[in-house]
Amino acid sequence: MSEAAPEPSAAEAETPDPGADPAIAARRLIRAAREATLATVTGSGQPFASLVTPAPAPDLSVLLWLSVLSGHTRHLMNDARCSLLFVGPARGPNPQKKARLTVTGLASQVEGPEVSALKARWLTRHPYAKLYAGFNDFALWRISLEEGLFVGGFAMARRIPGSAFRSDPAAVAAIAEAEAEIIAHVNEDHADALDAIAQGVLRRKGSGWRMAAVDVDGCDLVRGRGRARLHFARPVADADGVRRALILAAKAGRERLAQLG
User: Fold this and answer.
1) Is the domain of 241 the same as that of 119?
2) Residue 191 CA to chain centroid, in angstroms?
3) Selected residue with higher pLDDT from 53 and 15
4) 30-54 confidence digits (pLDDT tens)
């Protein structure tokens, strides 16, 4: 990757900054999440909550791989209304200091030609699920997000409009079209940059990190069973935007590693 003109900041680490713009922090919680709480509505109208393992689609809608044998799946088949709760890592003994996001949305089963690519994307986030990913009772679901409430910590609540969860369609399409080429190029030619990002920016150990997915908001890095999320400083619009963001992140990572000696 050749050098690029300086930009305001390199990148944000995986943990969302509670001081960041609430809409940006909310998006980052969704992009980095490996688990969430799904609330559905039973036939009698009783709310029902369950643990689910989400993965963000390129457009930030939430993907779930659900079994029809599960109660929450049958609830969604009868009533598409639902809610998701995403919770960030603890910052001390007080749970109220955790960043969290509650979003409302509508669920639908994914069908047609996009199932294969979106299922592969979900499995990138949850590779252990390959053991049961082919079972006939499972199907891919998508939750389109309507609005949210982000709490950055104790007494720090902000409403998030639905527009904040809708990525620019042209940018989403451009990154999706270039994703395979971006991943192959970075993994083959810039392994040292990925290690610098993982170690210096994301504070992860070890070498041999590889890019597994990329979207308008950032990228996912993997190493064995390890997973890490790099948030770009701001959404990118195309492959060149990804390149610039990675250059800045690699530079920041190398500078920090140099400081550590």
Assistant:
1) no
2) 22
3) 53
4) 999 999 999 999 999 999 999 999 9
pLDDT value at 13 more than 90: no
Q: State whether 159 and 209 are in the same domain.
A: no
pTM above 0.85, yes or no: yes
Which sign, positive or negative, has the C-alpha torsion 54, 55, 61, 67?
negative
User: Distances in Å between the alpha carbon of 160 and those of 113, 148, 174, 183, 257?
Assistant: 32, 5, 26, 32, 36
How high does pLDDT run on average in the chain?
A: 92
**Domain end: 135, 166, 197, which one?**
166
CA distance 77 to 100: 27
The domain that contains 137 carries what CATH number? 2.30.110.10
CA distance 44 to 226: 42
In terms of domains, do 38 and 160 share one?
A: yes
